[in-house]
Every structure is written in structure tokens, then in C-alpha cells.
Design goal:
With about 170 residues, the chain is mainly alpha-helical. Helices cover about 80% and strands about 0% of the residues.
Length: about 170
Amino acid sequence: MKSLSISQLKQEMKNRSSSDLLDVCLRLAKFRKENKELLTYLLFEVQDEQSYIESIKSEMDQQFIEINQSNIYFAKKSIRKIVRSTNKYIRFSGMKLTEVELLMHFCKRLAESDIPLKNSLALENIFLRQVQKIKKASHSLHEDLQYDYGEELKSIETLAQGLQKSEY
């Protein structure tokens, strides 16, 4: 089955009653966990973005605590999982401010962890990719916010440059 475009879906949704749309939303929520999480965000957490950010940060902190550091392979898998979940929460929000805050928190936690980033090119690349995403997202913020986050970004960039120099 071929899926329709967003505009076609939107047009069809305009023609449906509110009770039909409610049934469709509930049915969507039953099929995938991600759909249920998105509905939860849209219904309960979109009004208070700062508490949403804080809850994601605390979840990230817990995930960093649970990282298996016995082997770099397991640490790498855990970090990739944290990146995937963080990106999912960023997609839910769609706000650049949320993206910058969550990615900065991720980079700080990764740098503070005891995981030897210099021993794994994959981990270095994950870290550097997140720094690039922070730079890109912060350029679209208001000038005042760019300045506020600029100092934090400089300290993270210093860590990133240290990684790059150690490689070459």
C-alpha cells in the first residue's frame, strides 16, 4: 500500500468528525510506542517545554550512569542508544532551543564520563557530529540566546578540538 502525501491526509482529516479523528489517534497510539510518546508530548508536555527538557536531561543522566564501561564496544552501543533517544525527543519538540540544550547536555555528559573517547574513532565521530549539530542549531536562535549558549559551546568545542588534535 502506498502512503498518501501530507496535504492529502490533511484534506481528508478536515472532512472527518472530531470523534473519527479521536479514534484514528487512539488507533495510531496502539501500534507503535513512538506514536504513543509523541501523543503524550503533544497532549501533556508541549505547554511547559522547560520541564520537558529537564525530564529528558534526567533520563539522559540515568542512561549515562547505566553505561557498561567494561568494553569500549558496549559503551559505544550505549552511547548510540542515548543519541537515538535524544534525537527522537528533539524531533518531538521541533524547537531549536530544545535541540541545543539537549545536545549540549549530551556532549557535556559524554566528556565528563570515564569513557576514553580518544581510543575509539567511532565515539570521537559521534561527539564531533553532535558538536556540529549544536553549531548549526544555535545559528538559528535569537542573538541573545546565541550569546548565552556561546560560552558553553566554546568549552565543548575546546574538548572537540582536543579530540581532533589527538587523532592526527
